[in-house]
Design brief:
Length: 341
């Protein structure tokens, strides 16, 4: 599998393993399914794995660490996130988590982007992962905590990077505007943008991506299926977009994309998986994977050859956000840390 290199030298496979579902996102996943998914990812050539304490109150980190145990540590890249410190709540262990994960409420999430909070969070993550280092650390969803995250939070991460404790730092969010500001004003290496650069959402094209190219910062694209809207060959009437019911006009728009894709023997999910990698700033696409079957499907979508004529037709019809005509691999990679290997 092809890799793209961040400006600090970290190499990300173009397809990354998103481990939120290993934390029982929305429903339970077995330990065996989680382990099998990671094994399948390794067999498929995936070497970038992303997790966070938020995912299942640490369950995702524990499962991912266990599944990667015994793998050569220098052969894969591991990222996690800081900003939510897990505080034990044994009195609530009989309850279920109320933040989207089917796990016991043994901990509560406490927002903390102070230097101490960042260090405590990372230390706990290392313990759960069973490793002595992670390669990339993101500030996690600092939307309502900009002042603290953009000062003490990012300063702590930069300090860790400069000390050689981690190899690259940045932030992950479900918006583009604040990420663009962070790229312009801070010494970050990579940002994870969820849902704002997809086949139907070009929000990141007007601020974040130009800033990233200008500053040599790489972008990891996540949530490229937009909560399910782009996950199937044709969207169903009750499909969701950004966690809510998708509007009828947007569903109709995706059907028009599907009409074009099918003429070229391709599907909407294949286009959604590959679209963001056509931009020079993007280093990797992280897709959520719960089972080995999910891994196989996503890897096949990334490997599918999409003819240039299909992208040109979609662009001509104005059905996808424009990328100024040039795939990322054909642009000058010296503009950005995401060089192509």
């Amino acid at each position: 599998m092809r890799e793209r290199r961040l400006r600090t030298g970290v190499r990300l496979t173009e397809l990354g393993f998103g481990a939120a579902q290993l934390g029982n996102l929305y429903r339970r996943t077995t330990d065996q399914d989680a382990h099998d998914a990671v094994d399948a990812a390794w067999d498929a050539g995936i070497r970038y794995f992303d997790t966070a304490p938020h995912y299942g109150l640490g369950l995702s980190e524990r499962r991912l660490g266990a599944a990667l145990a015994g793998r050569p540590r220098d052969e894969y890249v591991l990222s996690t996130k800081v900003g939510r410190v897990l505080v034990p709540t044994p009195d609530r262990a009989h309850l279920r988590d109320d933040d989207g994960f089917d796990v016991p409420a043994r901990f509560r999430r406490e927002w903390d982007f102070t230097r101490d909070g960042v260090l405590r969070s990372l230390e706990a993550s290392l313990d759960r992962l069973g490793t002595d280092r992670v390669d990339v650390v993101y500030l996690h969803d600092p939307d309502a905590h900009w002042e603290q995250a953009s000062t003490s939070g990012i300063d702590a991460l930069v300090e860790l990077r400069d000390q050689g404790v981690v190899s690259a730092v940045g932030a992950g969010m479900n918006q583009a505007a604040m990420l663009a500001r962070l790229v312009r004003e801070s010494d970050v290496d990579v940002v994870m943008c969820a849902g704002r650069f997809t086949l139907v959402d070009g929000t990141a094209l007007t601020g974040l991506l130009p800033a990233a190219l200008d500053r040599g910062v790489s972008v990891v694209a996540a949530a490229v299926y937009n909560s399910g809207l782009l996950a199937g060959p044709r969207p169903l009437p009750d499909v969701r977009y950004d966690y809510e019911q998708a509007p009828a006009d947007l569903i109709a728009h995706v059907h028009r994309i599907a009409d074009v894709a099918e003429r070229f023997g391709c599907t909407v999910p294949e286009l959604a998986a590959q679209y963001t990698l056509r931009h020079a700033a993007v280093a990797s696409v992280v897709l959520g994977m719960r089972t080995a079957a999910h891994v196989t499907t996503n890897a096949a979508r990334m490997a599918r050859e999409v003819p240039d004529e299909l992208w040109e037709e979609l662009d001509r019809l104005g059905l996808v956000p424009g990328l100024d005509g040039a795939p990322g691999g054909e642009q000058d990679s010296t503009q950005n840390g995401a060089t192509h290997d």
